[in-house]
Structure formats: C-alpha cells, structure tokens
Specification:
A 7-stranded mixed sheet has the order 3-4-2-5-1-6-7, with helices on both faces. The chain has a single domain, classed as 3-Layer(aba) Sandwich (Rossmann fold). It is built from 11 helices and 7 strands. The protein is globular. The protein is an alpha/beta fold and 265 residues long. The protein is 43% helix and 13% strand. The structure holds adenosine-5'-diphosphate and magnesium ion. The site of adenosine-5'-diphosphate (ADP) has 17 residues, from helix 1 and helix 9.
Length: 265
C-alpha cells in the first residue's frame, strides 16, 4: 500500500477536492483505495454523506487508544461506500481537542503510520486529507506518507502558504530520516484571469519548487459532484477537472512505481 498525503497550510485551496478526485482516479484504474479524513472539520466525511459531529467510530479512535498505550485496529473504522473499491475512515470533531490534550505526548506522531501498517495488505493506496493547520494530525500524515501532494491555489496569496509547507516538509524529513517526495499542484486555475496566469508564471519560475507541469482548472462540476457524493473523476470522467486529476494520478502512479523499483534494485 502506498500512502499519499494531501496537505497545504492554507484552507480552501482544493485539498479535499484533490484527495477525493485522486482517490476516484485511482479506483478507476482498478486500485483498492482507503481515504482517511484527518480534518476535524470533516469536509471529506461530509462529501460522502456522513456528519463528523455524529459519526462513530472515527479516526479519533486510534489517537484515543494511543493515549492509553493501546492500539485500535483501523479496519473496524472503515465505512464502505456505493463505489466498489472505495472506502473511507471518517473524521470526528473530537479531533479538535487532540492537539491541546495530547499534542506533546511522546510517540504521538507515529500513531497513524503504525495503524496503517496493520491494513497495508488490504489496499493499494491510502489517501490522507489533512487540516490546514500544522499540528499533530498533519505530522502524523507526513510521517506516514510515501508522497505528499500540495495543492497550491493559483492566487497571489499562495506563495506564503507554499513556503510554510516546504519548511514543514524539511522539518519532517529531519525527524523521519528518509526523504518525503512532494509535488506542488496548481489548483483552481482560470486562464481568463490575470491573477491566475501571473501566479502560475511566478510559481513556474521558482527553481526551489517541485511543481507539476499541468494545472487543475476551475470547474463548477466539482461542486455538483460533491452534491452527489461521488468523486468527479468517477461521476463525470470526461469533465475538464476530471481529466486533469486523471492525468495527475497516472503521472504520480508511474513515478511511484519507478521509485519503488529503484528501492528494490
Ligand atoms: N478546481 C476547482 N474548480 C472549482 N471549484 C473548486 C475546485 N477545487 C475546489 N473547488 C471548490 O472550492 C472549495 C474549497 O475546496 P476544498 O477542496 O474543500 O479546499 P480545502 O480542502 O483546501 O479547504 C470547495 O467548494 C470546492 O468544491
Ligand atoms: Mg478540506
């Protein structure tokens, strides 16, 4: 199982949309995919028709167990959905207090990685949807991840968020002692607006940034897909937005395979 974390230290940049769309794209390629909603706001959970205020159990269970030196098996938390091979572990608003109560506790950053090891044989991919603020949940995601996807809204305020994320990646790499490959992905690109075009040009000019060569366009069908509770990549694979995420997913899968082969040989 490969773990892809979707994170950016900014809200409303397309993290959840990217997580759901990539998960759908992977399923359409025949992969068995587990999505995990790590955001206490529960957008991904809500996308699939569950309420993070009431859904039980949730991913919170593994952190709660860890505070009592216990382990909670992840497979008891998985919700099946109408789409074959697509499953979800929901988030819970209880995650909000995790940081304050247990954020500094020793070993708290490894809880998710350890839990995922227990179900690695049952899935081909795990896609983690992260909250926008750096804390114990994002640290868990970055420690567990084989790959980080950073959605960058093509908006003039995006540069600062990218810098914050790169800083975090370097910090995590020092503690996990193995590189964390990442790809920044321009989102909500609207070629008719000056702001989008200028921001994309500025992002492409940065030598320090591993930026995807494509873009995710603005597509109003994303909202439609969330109303239906299905990834747009499965609901309307021909949509412009779907095509972009399908291309991104296949590039990432190819790279992942190449990296795995390098590690093996
Ligand atoms: N490419 C896009 N085109 C149009 N709307 C988008 C696109 N990506 C995301 N959105 C919309 O923007 C809003 C924020 O996106 P979301 O994925 O929830 O961001 P985040 O998870 O970073 O907060 C949502 O209403 C979503 O439907
Ligand atoms: Mg979100």
């Amino acid at each position: 199982m490969k773990v892809w974390a979707i994170a950016a230290q900014k809200g409303g940049v397309g993290k959840t949309t990217t997580a759901v769309s990539l998960a759908g794209a992977l399923v359409s390629q025949g992969a068995r995919v587990l999505m995990v909603d790590l955001d206490p706001h529960g957008s991904m959970t809500g996308y699939f028709g569950y309420d993070s205020n009431t859904v039980e159990p949730s991913i919170h269970a593994i952190f709660e167990a860890a505070t009592q030196q216990l382990t909670h098996p992840l497979n008891t938390l998985v919700l099946r959905m109408s789409v074959r091979n697509l499953t979800l572990i929901p988030s819970s608003t209880a995650l909000v207090t995790l940081e304050r109560r247990h954020g500094q506790r020793q070993g708290m950053g490894l809880v998710l990685k350890r839990a995922l090891m227990g179900i690695a044989a049952q899935y081909d991919f795990c896609v983690l949807d992260c909250p926008p603020t750096l804390g114990v949940l994002v640290v868990n995601a970055l420690v567990a991840a084989d790959l980080l996807v950073v959605p960058v809204q093509t908006d003039p305020l995006s540069a600062q968020a990218v810098d914050r994320m790169l800083h975090t990646v370097h910090m995590i790499e020092r503690s996990r002692k193995i590189p964390l490959p990442y790809l920044a992905v321009p989102t909500m690109f609207d070629r008719r607006t000056r702001a989008s075009v200028d921001t994309l040009t500025a992002l492409r000019a940065r030598p320090d940034l591993n930026l995807w060569s494509g873009v995710i366009p603005v597509d109003t069908l994303f909202r439609e897909a969330s109303r239906v509770g299905q990834p747009l990549t499965l609901f309307q694979p021909q949509a412009r937005g779907s095509q972009a995420y399908l291309n991104l997913a296949s590039e990432l899968m190819q790279e992942q395979t190449m990296r795995t082969e390098e590690c093996v040989s």
